[in-house]
Q: What sequence folds into this?
């Protein structure tokens, strides 16, 4: 009888519990796919979780012990964070064990180092669950679309932010109000910074861009902007213009370099991504051969994410006896063929813009503003001046521009802000057609 594949689980949080449940419930199906028995032998956890059955498992209070245990073939890291998680993964790799992780921060920030160590040790590090929870987007881009030159990808890759924007859009609620509800529902952490300021999405986009374009992981080059400054007013004005606001990660290959950016984005309300609501995630990938493909599903949650974790366990188990030189590369492209194409600064990126200006209500103001935009070579696609309904000395003006390089827009806005007729700093949101 073939020896079983032995799994060491580090962490016992929501995803780890989901992984344990899926492995137990679907054990026979999983073993049929691998062709060998599989069993969880160890769990590394600092504290027990009520209701979790650990009968027959070795429980290690020092999670690092799991990484080098003799009765473990594949180490599954599900504790998150940087420091201890990195130690677990690096120790497991050096011990010659396969690794599965759902840790997007670890991969985005330290992935180049981790994968180098894995290549040298001849082991696999799998990370499907690090991006978009249960959606198999890593495998789709890395393997399913390997015939294509990926032109761009864009997506909603943080469910917390999408839930907040959905509530703000559909019910006109304020950001702080919805955030409090998201925390109460467990969608947002007590400290929601990673979710609402785009850091979580930037980790995921960094990984996707590396796989799509064959470049090293470069999290520090990703432009990141959150949603905490968005107001119901701008979401309402976007709707009146046929647009919806989504918090998108966008990576695009251009002749000048690669765009890598996370920010609030206005887009046509009939686009597929505009209609992905609540805590769902969705990715739109444009390939030169296949054209547009879209992937949507749960971006978090115990068993949805466990679905990706267990799929990675299956993949790593299959490679334990395979020739390391003939495995699917971690970042899709052979390491020696990764590109050194530059990541573009956000000032070099071209998009359309939504502008909201608060201006003095007197003749000639619009001519001044449009004159400044025209002087910088910026075309205007739509201009709306709100009617004054009460005794105020200023009114909002909404402008949609054509596509323009961001540094030109910033220069024009700096000049506009200097006009005596403009009363408040402008609101600026990028606009994408994603066509």
A:
């Amino acid at each position: 009888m073939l020896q079983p594949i032995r799994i060491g689980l580090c962490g016992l949080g929501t995803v780890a519990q989901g992984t344990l449940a899926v492995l137990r419930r679907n054990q026979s199906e999983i073993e049929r796919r691998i062709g060998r028995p599989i069993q969880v032998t160890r769990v590394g956890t600092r504290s027990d979780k009520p209701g979790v059955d650990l009968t027959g498992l070795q429980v290690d209070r020092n999670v690092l012990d799991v990484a080098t245990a003799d009765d473990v073939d594949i180490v599954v890291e599900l504790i998150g964070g940087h420091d201890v998680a990195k130690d677990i993964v690096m120790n497991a790799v050096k011990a010659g064990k396969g690794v599965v992780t759902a840790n997007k921060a670890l991969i985005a920030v330290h992935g180049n180092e981790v994968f180098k160590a894995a290549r040298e040790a001849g082991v696999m590090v799998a990370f499907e669950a690090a991006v978009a929870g249960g959606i198999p987007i890593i495998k789709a881009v890395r393997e399913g679309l390997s015939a294509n030159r990926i032109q761009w990808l864009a997506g909603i890759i943080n469910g917390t932010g999408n839930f907040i924007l959905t509530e703000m859009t559909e019910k006109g609620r304020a950001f702080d109000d919805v955030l409090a509800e998201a925390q109460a529902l467990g969608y947002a952490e007590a400290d929601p910074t990673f979710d609402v300021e785009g850091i979580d999405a930037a980790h995921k986009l960094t990984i996707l861009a590396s796989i799509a374009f064959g470049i090293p992981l470069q999290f520090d080059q990703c432009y990141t902007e959150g949603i905490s400054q968005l107001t119901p007013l701008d979401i309402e004005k976007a709707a009146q213009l046929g647009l919806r606001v989504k918090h998108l990660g966008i990576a695009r290959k251009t002749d000048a370099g690669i765009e890598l950016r996370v920010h609030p984005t206005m887009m046509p309300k009939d686009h597929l991504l505009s209609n992905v609501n609540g805590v769902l995630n969705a990715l739109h990938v444009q390939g030169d051969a296949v054209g547009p493909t879209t992937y949507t599903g749960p971006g978090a949650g115990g068993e949805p994410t466990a679905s990706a974790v267990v799929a990675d366990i299956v993949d790593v188990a299959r490679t334990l006896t395979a020739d390391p030189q003939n495995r699917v590369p971690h970042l899709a492209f052979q390491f020696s063929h990764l590109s050194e194409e530059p990541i573009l600064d956000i000032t070099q990126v071209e998009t359309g813009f939504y502008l909201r200006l608060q201006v003095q209500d007197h003749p000639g103001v619009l001519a001044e503003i449009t004159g400044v935009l025209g002087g910088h070579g910026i075309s205007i696609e739509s201009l709306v001046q709100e009617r004054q309904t009460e005794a105020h000395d200023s009114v909002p003006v909404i402008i949609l521009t054509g596509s323009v390089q961001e540094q030109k827009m910033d220069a024009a806005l700096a000049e506009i802000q200097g006009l005596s007729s403009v009363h408040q700093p402008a609101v600026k949101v990028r606009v994408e057609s994603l066509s």
